[in-house]
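Sequence in, structure out.
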Amino acid sequence: MTKLEILSELLVEELHSFKEEVNRLEKIEKSLKDTSIKADSTQIEKLIADHFRKLEVDQTAQQENREEILKIIKHSRTIPNWLIVLVLILILFLSLAFAIAYLLLH
């Protein structure tokens, strides 16, 4: 065989394999066109709904805590009870001392 015959045989084989590959790719393309993909967002919607429920529960708990703290602040005093009692006792002792001093001087 001559080189030309060998080259032509190789070329024919390459063309044949190329044609087979093209046919295979056409089949794949046809099957891809026939395949339909449906978007399903139910899982995402469920996750979002769960997240919103958790946010509502957290927001309610925070609101209750805020109201409780505001109630505690509203009923708190700036002067402690022990200081009020101490001042009252001192006033009592001073008034007694003045009364005794007044009685002793008259």
